[in-house]
Every structure is written in C-alpha cells, then in structure tokens.
Amino acid sequence: MAIPEKVLTEPVTLPKTGTWPETRHQFDEKSLWAIKAAVAAERPLLVRGEPGTGKSQLARAAAYYLGRAFISEVVHSRSECQDLQYYFDAVARLGAAQTLGLIGAVGDTIKDLLPDSERNMKNPLDPICFLNPGALWWAFNWTAAEKQYAKSNKAARRPEKPVDWTSEQGTVLLIDEIDKADADLPNGLLETLGNGSFSVPHMDEPVQVNEGDPVPLVVITTNEERELPAAFIRRCMVLHLDLPKGDDKLINWLCERGKVHFGDQCHMDVRKEAATQLVKDRKEAEKLNLPTPGQAEYLDILRAVVGIAKEDKDEQLKTLTAISHFALVKYERVP
What is the C-alpha separation between 238 and 176, in angstroms, rounded? Predict the structure, then answer.
C-alpha cells in the first residue's frame, strides 16, 4: 500500500531490507515528482549526481513510498545485460555431469548426491535445474521467478519478499552504478525495458509482467564516471541529485540532513561545525582536482561522533576535531 504524501513531509524510517540496514530518509518534492513521472510514463528513472548524494537510497525510498518490493543489483566492469536477466550455473552442471560419469550408475545412489531440487527429475542434468532468476526476472514477474528458483540449484541471490506483499503491488528495481559497465549493458537494458520482456534459454515462454501487475519502476544510478549512450538517456526520465550551491546553503542543507539521521543525539553546533569543515575540504579538493567529500562523508563523521561521545556537546565537539580528518580529508597533496 502506497504511503500518503502528507506523511512524507516528515522524515521516514526505511526498514531493514536484505543487506540494506535500517535508515532515515527525507523526501523532497523534486524527487517525488520524478518518481511519479517515471511510474506514469513506464520509463526507467536515471538518477545522476556525484557520489554520496543519496541516489541509491532514493530507489529504496521509492519502494517504501509506492508500497512495492525492493530489488537491487550493483553493476561492475564485467556486468552484462544477461547477468541482470538470469544466471546459468554451467560450472555446477559440469560438476554434476562429471560426478555422474565417475559413478557410472543411476538410481538412488546418484540421487543422494544431487541437490534437493534435482531429485525426482527424469534428467538430473536438465539445464532448467541450473537456471537461476536474475534481478530483472524478479522485477518483471516475481511469481515466475519464485517457481524457477524452486527448481534451480539456488546459485543466485533471492530478493527479500516484504511481509504481506503480493505481486499485484509491483516492484522497484535498483540498478546501481551503471556507468561502471560497458555501453553494451545500457543498450541491452534499453531493449529489455522497451520490450517489457526478455527470452531465457531452455524456456518456451519469455519473461514478462503478468497482466494486471504494474510495470516495475527501474531506478538506475550513475556517478558520471563514464558517458552513457545518448539513446539510452533519451529513453529515461532523468533526475539530477546535486548538492546545493553556495557555502551557506550547503551548510544548512547538511545540518538538516544530520538532524534527519541523528536528531537530538548530535548537537546543532556539532552538525554545523562538521558541515563547515566539509565545505572547506570540498574547496581544497577541487583545487587539487581530487574527489570531493559529500553527504555520505558528512553522515559518516556524525555517526562516528555520536558513537564515541554520545550526547555531551563539548565531548562531541572535541571528538569532531580529533577525527574529522579521517572521514573528510581522505586525499592529501604528496610532497
């Protein structure tokens, strides 16, 4: 069930989901409109911006806002579109074939050596036993993915299913850091998302959204490390998450984010001092053409301060002075 927008004027707590810990999130009007536009247009939402601006968390917050299941996949330099669709465990199948060949027999002896999913199969080397649903499969058709997961050797991760959630409520898929992959991945992804389906080897029917279920919201993030294909960008709704311009605006914005996450645990003076230091370090990093600290580093330093000094203001300020160098000034000029 979607969350009423009037509730979103205050910070919300995003519950623990899979490997994602519980955290706090503050929605803003711009992001909410971007989510609405992507859902209504049935287009991916490409979220651009420097690291540490909350791009990945926005996808999780969108799932919370829409009342949908959350699925995530982090892209790396070797990722291909197929990896997001399915994973065929050829190594496990080869190992099973070698085992069967060495034993040279059939019957209960062999069955005892096979995974539960393969027992009672007429052909224990049936490729379907080694076919694992990928993130797009779960996002497009959770029901079909569950059925295939039960048949597979479970060599790929299964997303966490929310309590009382059904497929009719839909999904949100986060494809994180797509700029780390070659251009073939976004181009292949564009075709898959545009068709609303994809084919899987050893299966007669393509994977597609069930009739009556909502089209998944696909949130794609980029840190701008590599230019994305123009055709891909044109087919996406695009949201830029940028830090506020101007020292005072950025300091105030960071202080508010600190309050969202730590409330009265972290004193206002401490939040402001940390924000002021971060702005100073950003300017120095820009001069040296080095990566600039952002919201992520700011929240890290506040988390460390609160963890060490608890709620004593003077102790927190003293702690901030002692440890800010470790969280903010991560790059230094080499003599």
Answer: 15
Mean pLDDT calculated for residue range 126-136: 92
Percent of the chain with pLDDT over 90: 58
Pairing assessment for the beta strands 12-14 and 23-25 based on DSSP bridges:
antiparallel
Residue for token digits 């797509």? 178
Task: Report the run of H or E that residue 131 belongs to, with start and end.
Answer: strand 131-133
The conformation of residue 19, written as its DSSP 8-state character, comes to T
CB half-sphere exposure, 85, CA atoms < 13 A: 20
Does residue 160 sit in helix, strand or coil?
A: coil
What pLDDT is stored for residue 335 in this prediction? Answer: 47
Which stretches of 67-213 are DSSP H helices?
Answer: 81-85, 90-103, 108-111, 135-140, 142-151, 184-195
Which residues, other chains included, contact 293 with Cβ-Cβ below 8 Å and sequence gap of 6+?
52, 278, 281, 282, 285, 327, 328, 330
**DSSP H helix total and E strand total for the chain:** 13, 11
- Could you tell me which residues are beta bridge partners of residue 315? none
Residue 231 identity? A
DSSP, collapsed to helix, strand or coil, labels residue 222 as strand
| Through-space distance between the first and last CA atoms of the chain, rounded to whole angstroms | 58
Q: Would you say 134 and 84 are in contact if contact means Cβ atoms under 8 Å apart?
A: yes
Nearest one of 185, 218, 266 to 66, comparing CA atoms? 218
- Considering the entire predicted model, what is its pTM? 0.86
